[in-house]
Amino acid sequence: MDKVFSRRTILVTGAGLTAGLTLPGVAHAGGAGSVGFVLDAETLDGGEQVTSLTLDTSRTGPIDPASLTTTTFSVHVKATSPIDTGGQDIGYDLDRPVTAARLDRRGNIVLELSHGEGQTGGGTLGYINSKGRNVRLHLVYTVTQNAPVRQRHGRPVTFTRFVQGRLTNPEVDAFSYHTSRSGMKYRLYSPASRHGLRPLIVWLHGGGEGASLPDDYYDNETTLRANRGALGFATREAQAIFDDAYVVAPQSTSAWMDDGPRFAPLIHEIIRDLLRTRPIDARRVYVVGCSNGGYMSLEMTTVYPTTFAASVPICGVVTAREEGDPPLIPDAELTAISTPTWLVASRDDDTVDPQANSVHAHELIPHSELTLYDHVIRNGHQFPGHWSWIYVARNDPSVHGTHVWQWMARKHR
User: Can you give the C-alpha Rg of the chain in angstroms?
Assistant: First the structure.
């Protein structure tokens, strides 16, 4: 495993009202009155956000929850890019409103932060336009204590220093880190139950989640943090439908569309290695991808027609990238696809023309299904039309009463 937190784990001091003073009642947690804290994150439909901070206060003694209010602590964050952006400011520098302060079961203080789709200041990723890449931002959080908290016996407690720890996201952290023999990085979710042969779901990311090798940036992170594409298949609901599936998310060294025929055997190598080393049923291997990955899902079924039990290309590209170029996937290859295929797109996609790509592919791929939405809307929030992968990650597409996950799970080679 090549899991590394040191690049983005930064020690931060948040000066409280009594910072640097020695007063009666000052807590000594972790030495010299310091308290560590972790960044609690969640991958929303629109990407990962830091939703709360957990302060390691359990060793200070029982704290009276009544002494915690939304103004007891203040939170500030500064986010910067880990690589050159060409002058684009993809970060932020602002206060994060505390919406609740509470104790968890261990006695740690949890500061709930304002967050939600479309809110600025909570995201862990930034998109660099000139590179077409999402990068994981350097996050520096500062916690300031504005008023003492009280222990249950009444003693006031003021912490003198707050030290930032790692970013935690239970869904993302459930995927282990790996690198193939050919050097392609990938993340792998292993099901809790491994009795008998299990299915394998291959998630192929969009163009923004590839590496940027000229910047020495290949993090094996954004594939799980930019959207819920892979994470959706690791949820309890999906795992019940697929009867405990492995989920693998390879990361391209650039973008799949840059050289699909070269990337195809590298992805296939990962699949073969997993079939060899894990209890996986070769008859139940599924491929799903969005945008660049939607193209790559189709490409995989043209190159390896007997590998996959089903394919779900989302807002994928089959046409030429530039005028005068050959199509990425010629009509003859689309017509020859034998893998059961369900295409998904939205009519208001202004990044990839759904009519020229998803609809066109559906008309040529024998017996394929197509779900074409008018807009991408979830919980009242309208996302860009290109983001139709949100629906697949939530098992929304259906045909004749059968949803896409159930349709996939019923397919066998």
Answer: 24
The confidence band for 339, taking pLDDT boundaries of 50, 70 and 90, is very high
pLDDT tens-digit map of 369-384: 999 999 999 999 999 9
Q: How far is CA 304 from CA 250, 299, 339, 360, in A?
A: 17, 8, 9, 21
CA 80/CA 302 separation, integer angstroms: 41
Closest C-alpha among 124, 87, 151, 379 to residue 227 = 124
- 368 half-sphere exposure, CB direction, 13 A CA radius: 27
140's CB contacts (< 8 A; 6+ apart) are 10, 12, 77, 78, 79, 80, 164
Nearest 5°: phi and psi at 163? -115, 120
Measured from the Cβ of residue 24, the count of other Cβ atoms closer than 10 Å reads 6
Count CB atoms within 10 A of the CB of residue 269: 15
Decide: helix, strand or coil at residue 114: coil
Cα-based distances in Å from 176 to 2, 221, 372 = 9, 11, 34
DSSP 366-380: TT-EEEEES-EEETT
Burial class (CB in 10 A: 0-12, 13-18, 19+), 398: middle
CA angle 379, 45, 205 (to 5 degrees): 150
For 169-190, how does the pLDDT look when each residue is reduced to its tens digit (9 = 90+)?
999 999 999 999 999 999 999 9
Q: What's the gap between Cα 312 and its chain centre?
A: 19
Strand partners, 123: 49
Which of these, 313, 361, 51, lies nearest to 202 by C-alpha position?
Answer: 313
* Cα distance between residue 337 and residue 80, in whole Å: 44
Contact 43, 227 (CB under 8 A): yes
Nearest Cα residue to 184 out of 124, 247, 246, 273: 273
The one-character DSSP state at 215 is G
